[in-house]
Design goal:
The complex is a heterodimer. Chain A is α/β, with parallel strands linked by helices. Chain A is 20% helix and 21% strand. Chain A is built from four helices and seven strands; from the N terminus they run αββαβαβαβββ. In chain A, β6 and β7 form a beta hairpin. The longest helix of chain A is centred in the middle third of the chain and has 15 residues. The radius of gyration of chain A is 19 Å and the shape is elongated. By secondary structure, chain B is mostly helical. Helices cover 71% and strands 0% of the residues of chain B. Classes of the chains: A alpha/beta, B mainly alpha. At the A-B interface, loops of A face α2 and α6 of B.
Chain lengths: 176, 190
């Protein structure tokens, strides 16, 4: 879209009340309700933003279908867009376009800093052998000598692991 | 009702009823890790049901909640396998193993569907079901030499995909599942 004569983004295109960039910036301030160190943008659940006059259309892809945080995220996005003076339309997209590969590199590092091992990249398939492998680093000490304790954890997106290096349990984001 | 809506309801009902049955282990599973695992699996299954009901609700001009909770027990399209009350752990695990096998085959077919909405949602659900299958396979490996488990597999196998009629046990589950919604005072909104 370019910018004005000093390079600043144009306030709006024609009758648009906000720019797409302003919407993305606003959404980047919304924390994940269950892992508040990362934002919904870091999580990669915002697939598209379109501004049409006063209407802002957001395509939102759920993470895990049974996750109770989905409504909270959807409502928080609508509220934040309304605060920008626009009319929000948050469309929930039920296809498989979200995977843990959509979490941004910044999001992965924020997860690690908060004590969650980030997901491994999606491979051909996920097997117990892979889950028992040394592909997972302890977020506390960095050791690869970790073991799977439980495929399931406190929320649908997490598994429980144990670090034999520093003898700490930790949570790992499931790869999907 | 369109063929697509019937299919979506069949799968959604399977996942909803199984999710309710699985959640009966919350708090009383054999050990803590299993309590977490079975509760999490139950939560996922109910989440899959909701997404499937939402797609069906658009076709049928209704809502996911109405499809999930406002039909009579006789209108549900689930298989008898998920309806059974199985308070023995080995029978629950046998159902889990049989259901996950059948569900994996169904999801493979749906992922290849010409209908992009059905194929897309099936692919999304399958990403999560991978972990249910790992859990089922782990328990199968652990129990396969136990006679009680082998008997349970044989007992329950005929119920896989059996949709001509319902188990009498569905009615009591339905009563429990819909009691809050049915007792909603007139005029209440959520």
């Amino acid at each position: 879209m370019g910018g004005d004569d000093v390079g600043a983004a144009l306030a709006a295109d024609g009758d648009d009340v906000v720019t797409e960039a302003e919407v993305w910036e606003a959404l980047a301030e919304i924390p994940d309700p269950e892992i508040p160190v990362i934002s919904v943008v870091d999580l990669g659940v915002v697939r598209d933003v379109q501004v049409d006059d006063e209407r802002v259309h957001v395509e939102f892809t759920p993470t895990f279908l049974g996750c109770p945080a989905l409504e909270v995220m959807r409502d928080a996005m609508a509220t934040r867009i309304a605060e920008l003076g626009a009319e929000p339309e948050v469309e929930v997209v039920l296809d498989d376009s979200w995977s843990t590969d959509r979490i941004t590199p910044e999001g992965r590092e924020k997860l690690r800093a908060a004590g969650f091992a980030p997901p491994t990249p999606r491979g051909e398939d996920t097997t117990l052998v892979q889950l028992q492998s040394n592909g997972f680093r302890c977020p506390y000490c960095g050791s690869r000598d970790t073991a799977l304790e439980n495929i399931f954890g406190p929320t649908p997106c997490r598994s429980l692991r144990y670090c034999r290096g520093c003898k700490q349990p930790f949570e790992q984001f499931k790869t999907i | 009702m369109s063929e697509r809506a019937q299919l979506l309801l069949e799968i959604a009902d399977d996942e909803l009823i199984l999710g309710w049955r699985d959640s009966e282990w919350t708090g009383i599973a054999p050990f803590l890790e299993e309590d977490v695992a079975f509760s999490s699996i139950a939560q996922n299954e109910v989440g899959h049901a909701r997404a499937l009901y939402e797609l069906a609700a658009r076709d049928l001009d209704t809502t996911a909640d109405e499809l999930a909770f406002d039909r009579e027990p006789s209108e549900y399209r689930c298989s008898e396998l998920v309806e059974l009350r199985l308070p023995e752990w080995e029978r629950t695990i046998a159902r889990h193993v049989l259901y996950e096998q059948a569900d994996a085959e169904r999801l493979e077919r749906l992922k290849a569907s010409d209908d992009p909405e059905v194929a897309g949602l099936a692919a999304k659900i399958d990403r999560e079901e991978v972990y249910h299958r790992l859990h089922a396979e782990m328990w199968h490996a652990r129990l396969q030499d136990e006679p009680r488990y082998a008997e349970a597999l044989e007992e329950l196998r005929p119920f896989v995909g059996k949709r001509n009629g319902h188990s009498p046990e569905l009615t009591s589950l339905w009563e429990e599942m819909t009691s809050v919604r049915r007792s909603q005072p007139t005029g209440t909104t959520w």
